[in-house]
C-alpha cells in the first residue's frame, strides 16, 4: 500500500481538507484510490511519520529536516485546499513512479 501524508502546522485544518483534494486528484489522474492510504498530521510529528510521500505548503516544506527527506519524498504546493490542477501536476510524477514500481494501479 502506497501511503501519502498531508501536513500542516497543527494537523487539523489545512491537512484534513487537503486529504480530499489529494484523493480527488488521484482519482482524476486515473489511479485506483484503493491502493493508496491518505492521512494527515501536524508538522510537529513530521520526524515520526511513516509514508512514501509528504505533501505540504512551501513554507513548511522548507522546514522539513534532511533526515526525513532522505527516505520520504516531499511535495510542496502553494494551495493545498483548492488548487486541484497544481495538486494533480505535483502528484503525477510520484504516482507514475509508484505505478511503475507496482505499488499502485490504474483504474
TrEMBL record:
The keyword Magnesium does not apply. GO terms for molecular function: protein-N(PI)-phosphohistidine-sugar phosphotransferase activity. Residues 2-99 form the PTS EIIB type-2 domain. Pfam families: PTS_IIB. GO terms for biological process: phosphoenolpyruvate-dependent sugar phosphotransferase system. InterPro entries: PTS_EIIB-like_sf, PTS_EIIB_2, PTS_EIIB_2/3. Keywords: Transferase. This is PTS EIIB type-2 domain-containing protein. It comes from Mediterraneibacter butyricigenes.
Amino acid at each position: 500500500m502506497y501511503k501519502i501524508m498531508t501536513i500542516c502546522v497543527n494537523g487539523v485544518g489545512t491537512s484534513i481538507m487537503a486529504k480530499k483534494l489529494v484523493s480527488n486528484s488521484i482519482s482524476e489522474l486515473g489511479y485506483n484510490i484503493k491502493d493508496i492510504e491518505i492521512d494527515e498530521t501536524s508538522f510537529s510529528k513530521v520526524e515520526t511519520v511513516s509514508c512514501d510521500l509528504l505533501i505540504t505548503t512551501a513554507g513548511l516544506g522548507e522546514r522539513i529536516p534532511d533526515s526525513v527527506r532522505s527516505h520520504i519524498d516531499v511535495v510542496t504546493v502553494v494551495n493545498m485546499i483548492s488548487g486541484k490542477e497544481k495538486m494533480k501536476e505535483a502528484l503525477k510524477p510520484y504516482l507514475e513512479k509508484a505505478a511503475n514500481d507496482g505499488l499502485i494501479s490504474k483504474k
